[in-house]
Specification:
It contains 6 helices and 10 strands, in the order ββαβαββααβββαβαβ. With about 210 residues, the protein is α+β, with helices and mostly antiparallel strands. A 10-stranded mixed sheet has the order 1-2-3-10-4-9-8-7-6-5, sandwiched between helices.
Length: about 210
């Protein structure tokens, strides 16, 4: 999938497998047409092929996870979790810029009310939303999960994600997310919510 609506062109081609010959062939054929500046999700061996072509590159290993059961999301009190919409857009963007500067935002999901968060003293301190969805295939991808450093280790991310999933299910039955392999606290949080690993890929940024 090639997407042009963001500030940087996006190529999503992960199969979440290693040594996937079809993807390697695809990337090889696409290379002559790719712009110098691009954001990609690629299988690791394919990412290595692309890396050989440039020294202006940033590569980050990621895990892809999906929820295996929604039972656990009811274990968290979500009374203080709010649903956010279009009127909250500037506040959400400002919060993400401060707390999660490598965020990737499709503002349409804010407009659709696909973000949930927690405030303290009228300030946003934790949030979770959507970065992709398909009504046809009943699939969504959770992203932009962020908590202010002063409020971490208090289960706030678990609460915001639980509220979001309760809003999504059962309309969307396949609920996924991507997380950096090095972000062990986040991975443990997602496992606690019964997300399981489904594969790995590389986030590749050419600039």
């Amino acid at each position: 999938m090639f997407i042009l609506k963001y500030d940087i062109p996006v190529l999503l081609a992960s199969s979440y497998q290693r040594n996937h010959s079809y993807q390697k062939e695809l990337v090889k054929k696409l290379q002559p047409f790719l712009p110098n500046r691009i954001y990609c999700h690629l299988d690791r061996d394919s990412a290595n092929d692309l890396i050989d072509q440039t020294n202006r590159i940033q590569v980050t290993p990621y895990k892809n996870m999906k929820i295996s059961s929604i039972d656990t999301i009811h274990d968290f009190e979500i009374d203080d979790v709010q649903k956010f919409g279009k009127k909250d857009k500037e506040e959400i963007i400002s919060f993400l810029k401060e707390v999660h500067p490598d965020y990737f935002l499709d503002e349409e999901y804010i407009n659709q009310g696909c973000y949930f968060g927690i405030k303290r003293d009228n300030s946003l301190i934790s949030i979770a939303g959507l970065v992709a969805k398909s009504e046809r295939y009943s699939v969504v991808s959770i992203g932009n999960v962020a908590t202010h450093p002063l409020y971490r280790k208090k289960n706030l991310a678990s609460k915001t994600i639980s509220a979001l999933i309760q809003n999504l299910y059962p309309t969307y039955r396949t609920i996924t997310l991507n997380v950096k392999e090095a972000n062990v606290p986040a991975i443990n949080c997602y496992k606690k919510l019964e997300f399981i690993e489904t594969g790995t890929f590389e986030e590749v940024i050419l600039e």
